[in-house]
Structure formats: structure tokens, C-alpha cells
Amino acid sequence: MSAIDTDLEALFNRLADGIASEADEERLGQVLRSSAEARQAYRQFMDLHSALHWDYVAVAGPESSPDLSQPSSHSPPLGRARWVAAFFAGIAVATVAAIAIAVFWQNHSPNSQEKEVVKDAKSDAIAALLVDKVDAEFAKERGPAGVRFGPGEYELLGGIVHLRFAQGADMILAGPARFRVTDAQNVQLLVGKARVIAPSTAKGFTIATQAANYIDLGTEFGLRVDPDGASDLYVFDGQVNVADPRSGKVLSEVFEGKSSRYVNGVAAIPPLLQASDFPTPGAIGLKRWEQYEQELRKSPGLISFFPFRRGADASVLENGIGDDVMSNGKIVGARWVSGRWQEHGALLFDRDSDFVQLEIPGKYEELTIAAWIKVDRLDFELNAILNSDGFKPGGVHFQLNRQGFPRGGVFVVGSFKDKIVGSAVQLGAWAHVASVISTPTRSQQIYVNGILVRERAWRQDEMIRPGSCRIGNWLPETKDRLANRSFRGRIDELAIWNRVLTQQEITQMVDAGRPGMLWSKE
Amino acid sequence: MAVSAEFVAQITRCQRHLHAFILSMVWNPAEADDVLQETNLTLWEKVAEFDSSRPFLPWAMRFAQFQAMAWLKRHKRQRLVFDDDLAKILADEAAMHEPAFDVRQHALASCLQKLASEQRKLIARRYEPGASVNAMAEKAKTTAKAVSDKLRRIRHALLECIEKTIAEGAFA
Q: What is the pLDDT of residues A137-146, one digit of tens each?
């Protein structure tokens, strides 16, 4: 090894051990910029530094929860923990598999050698992440650290939470519930109701209860643990094995559509399934939106609100506010389908003849139109979300161009300036679009998912007179080069205010109405 | 809402590699854990944007790069060393050497077994949660530099052993 290598290695060591000087840092910056060889040496050193840390924390990995006799008997072995245990014993068993099986997030948890770090275990380790919630309230000091669930006990007082475990299992819990997270594949449900959806990567995901252990074999199921200790299993899809919590022996194999009840390891007759006991991931988003809907209805200046709820007459798009200013919409062609959530309605616009006709009477100085849309295709140069019929001063247009950029505003005589500052609406994903028009300032802003994407300014004074309009289409009055502006996709919420909404208000609407926590604004 | 098993497998597989890269920017392993968690959250958020026909690691590495830079800026650290350009070079090169990374990890497993018991204990103390060279020095009534020097010799032995093991083709 050359002298420079030794020097460099000493420098890397000082950085790793937290005793480097400013001069060291400057030198590192210089050598990394100037030498590929130095970068390689640095990368290999840091790989080692990382591996030593990574493998050390595994030795403090989760062991059997003291209250469970056989919590891990059916889960895959934790390769890393086993390897490090061997490392400390000095036994050469480091196999390729042991390293290849990476445990997703490291777990610091109780270990005989490491009693002093136990206190911090919950905040440091991650076995699962909170991916969605509604009304969720945890007992004091029995909640997650932000969105992180490490090993430990949790108490959900009310609401619904959606946890995603590190190996891919999803657990949706309805409060009240008490549970203990052991690691990415093992949970103990003390009391409460849980729906589990496990992809193949999480095969073996186990929920332990006082009465029995439930081992998921790639499936979807509901599990309810009563305060008296009885537990009821309902398998919606796939197979779940029920095992004796003491011996680990498989007591029964429960398949799709079947249920089981165990009391202290003894089988009993399960009660009938109450579907509302086991909310789906989508139910969380829907419930959040329903709460927001109540507030939205009280929003000042709201002149129309279409929640896209299918009513008694399927050809009517009901205006959800009791105000007589505006009538309901008349659905022509467009079909009822599911919206952002399975239980939420939407209209599908897929043919040139599909639209909703409605009337927005009156004259306005300001107007905000907001909608949730999911675009399948952009077949035309302009694709209408909500357009006044024809083309007359005061009419409003809100549409997407072929690139997915929203455009339109109030029709005024004379020139206007458009400035595109943001990104287009993505195909195939739910998006919130809002058009905010102000005639006193002769300006308009368009937001996609709460982010400003287009601004328009004009010179001529003009009041806004939407009048007769179509959702998802446009009715040209005369021969028009761009006559066909049929929307292709779904719309499941549309609201109109007679005032300007702030970006903050729009962002709140986006956050409350987002399909799920993993939905991205960008 | 559905996340493909493929995505879960990919994100699981690249954890060590992402951690090693992040550590090369933040230097403290526990802090690298934090940045890794933030990166994981971002990856979950961006799952819809992932093109499964393209390699996963370079895509994920880009988010690790942004998160590490953001973390350094937030904590006003390493300003003399890293800028966006250098971070990108390191991330690109780390992603490029994915196969070598795996081979070296395998080699390390056998090299660790060859350490003397005293050396293993020192490594264990250095890398246990919450440990620091300064605290180790205080406990052993010596200087941080003396402790770091001992660690340097062990790390050097491991790095040499990795090279030797690979050269011998023991893990080919």
C-alpha cells in the first residue's frame, strides 16, 4: 500500500470516528473531486463502516416477546441477526443467504447485553410505517414516533390507522385497539380489530393473540380480539393457518370465505362477519373526505357542490348544498363508476356524447372552480372539465390541452397573457384542479394538486357569467375548429365558489381529499 | 394503494447499499439511519413513478442523494466537502458498483470471522447503538486518537482481507 493510501485511510478513519478536523474535511473534498481512485477507496471504506454498523445493530434485533411463547416459530429466520450472533460466537457460518436476506429496517430492541439502550428502542427502530390514518388517537406514550412504529406496545384509542410493515404486510386497525409490534413480520394483537393484506414478500406474517396465533400465507383477512380473549378470524382471500400459541402446532387451516373462533386455544363457533369491523385502506381516505365534506359545505361563498353521490335518480347529478341558486345537473351519457375510493361515486366520461348539463345563473366578480379528476386520455386539442356553452363574453372555460396543462378562464374581448409555471396533469392518476378567477384584478390562477401551474392576466373589464354549462364536454354554438372537447376519464367532485380561494385553502382541500397517504402531489 | 411485491423486494434488497452511500456523506452511522428512513419514505411516496423496466438502485440512489444533501444543509454540516455535483458523482459511482458491493459484503462476512476476539470486542463496542470513540476513550482512560488508531488497524485488516478473499475467488 502506498504512502498516500495510508494517509487517506487515516483520514477516512478520523471522519468515521468523528475526530476529523476542518483541514481533514477540506482535504477530503479536494481528493474526492480530483481522483476516481480516491473515490473508490473512500466508497469501499464507507461500505465497510456501514456494514459494521448495520451488522452490529442486528445483534440487538428482536427476540421473542416475553409474553409470547412462539411468536416467530412460523416466520422466516432473520438472516442478519443469525449471522451476527455467529460472528460474536466466532463461528464461521457466514453464508451468502445470511447476508442476501436484508432485513428492511434495523431493529434495536431488548437484548440481554444491551439493557441500557432499551429505553430508546421505540424511537430508533422501525418495523412499520404509518401510511394513512383518520381520527387516530393514541394513548399517551403509546403511539408511534411520527410515522414510525418500532418494537413496543401501542394503544389506539379511536379512529383508523393503516400500517405498512417493512416486509410489505399492510395492517388496518380500527380503534380501540391494543397491540404489540415485535418486528416486521410479527405483531401481537391484545384487543381490537385488524384487517391484514399481505403480499408474497410478507408470507408468514404472524399475528399472535392470547387465544391463537394467525400465520398469513399470502392473503387478506380480518381478525377481531375481544376483551375477554376470544379471537375471531375471517379469511377474505387466500389461506391463514391458526396455530396453538403455546406449542406452535397448527390447529386449523382456514381458507377464503371461511371463519374461525378460538378461545384459549379451543375452537368455538364464530359470530357472523360484520364487514364494518374491518375497514379497507380506501375507507380511511373516504372517511377523512366525508369529515371534510361537512366543513366544505359551510365554506363561505360556496354556490355549488357536487359530491358525485348516486341518488335515487341516476340521471341527476345532485347539487349537495341546499341553496336554490343552482339546480342539479342532468347526466347525459356519462356512467356511474367508482371514484377515488371504491365506495365513492364518480362519473365516467368516455364518449363524445357524454356530459352533465347544468346551469350557473348570475353574475360574479370572482369565481373558483375546483374538481377531482382522473384523466384516461387526452384525445383532443382541448378537453373540457367545465365549460360554458358557446363562446360569449363572461363565459367560463376550464379544460386541459393535449399536453395535460389546464387552461381557460373567463372569456373577455381583447388580448390576454398566459404564463405556464408548473407541471401538467398526469394521465391515470387522481388530480385536484382548481381555477381561481378575479375580475377586479383581471387575473386568474390555475392549481394542480395545490401547486400553481398557470397564470393569466387580461386588460378588458368583464363580469363572470357562466350560465348554461357542461361538465366533461363543450357545446359549440357555431362552427368551431376545436368543436370536440370531450373529456376522457373520471370526475368525482366539483365545487364552485363566488369568491377567490387562497392557495392555502386549496392545499387544505387537496390534503383532505387525497386518495391515500401514498398518493403523490407531483 | 397497491404496491407490487417487486417494489417491496427491490426496496428491501437495496437497503444496505443505500445506507453505505448515505454514510459516505453524513459519516455518523446512526444519522445515516435517519436519512435512510427519510429516503425510504420518499421511495414509498414515489412508488407510482418507478418504471420497473429500469434498474432500481440508480433510481433509489438519486433520492438518497437528495435526502443526504438536504440533511447536510439542514444540519449545516460537511459544507467544506460536499456540493450537489460531488454528491451526484458519488451516487452515480455507488449505483454503478452494485455487483462489486455485494461481492465485498460476502467477503467481509468471512473476514470478520478471522479477527481476534479482542478485535471483535472493540468493533462491537464501537458500533453498538449510541457508542462514540470519545466515550470509549474516556472509559478506557486513553485518547480518542488512540482508540481510533486501534480501530484503523482493524478496519485496515478487514479491507485487506476483503481484497485477498476476492482475489482468491473464494466467493466467486
A: 999 999 988 7
Q: Name every chain B residue with its beta carbon within 8 A of the beta carbon of A516.
A: 1
The gap between the terminal CA atoms of chain B, to the nearest Å, is 40
Among A25, A39, A106, the residue with its CB nearest the CB of B78 is A25
A360-390: pLDDT as tens digits: 999 999 999 999 999 999 999 999 999 999 9
**Cα A406 from chain centre:** 25
**Which residues have a Cβ under 8 Å from the Cβ of B24 and sit 6 or more positions away?**
A42, A43, A46, B90, B94
Give the list of residues 6+ apart from residue A4 with CB closer than 8 angstroms, or none.
none
Whether A25 has its CB under 8 Å from any CB of chain B: the answer is yes
Decide if B162 and A131 are in contact by the 8 Å CB cutoff: no
Residue type for position A65: S
A172 and B CB contact within 8 Å: no
Sheet strands (E) in A378-429: 382-388, 397-401, 406-407, 416-420
| Contact between B24 and A104 using a beta-carbon 8 Å cutoff | no
Question: What interface predicted TM-score (ipTM) does this complex get?
Answer: 0.95
Chain A from 415 to 474: CB within 8 A of any B CB: 429
Tell if the CB–CB gap between A99 and B106 is shorter than 8 Å: yes
Nearest to A454 by CA among A482, A483, A421: A421
Q: Is the pLDDT of residue B139 over 80?
A: yes
Pair A126, A149: CB distance under 8 Å: yes
3-state SS of chain B?
Answer: CCCCHHHHHHHHHCHHHHHHHHHHHHCCHHHHHHHHHHHHHHHHHCHHHCCCCCCHHHHHHHHHHHHHHHHHHHCCCCCCCCCHHHHHHHHHHHHHCHHHHHHHHHHHHHHHHCCCHHHHHHHHHHHCCCCCHHHHHHHCCCCHHHHHHHHHHHHHHHHHHHHHHHHCCCCC
pTM score of the predicted model: 0.57
Q: Is A483 on the interface with B (CB under 8 A)?
A: no
Contact B90, B21 (CB under 8 A): yes
Beta strands in A184-226 (DSSP E): 186-197, 206-208, 213-216, 220-225
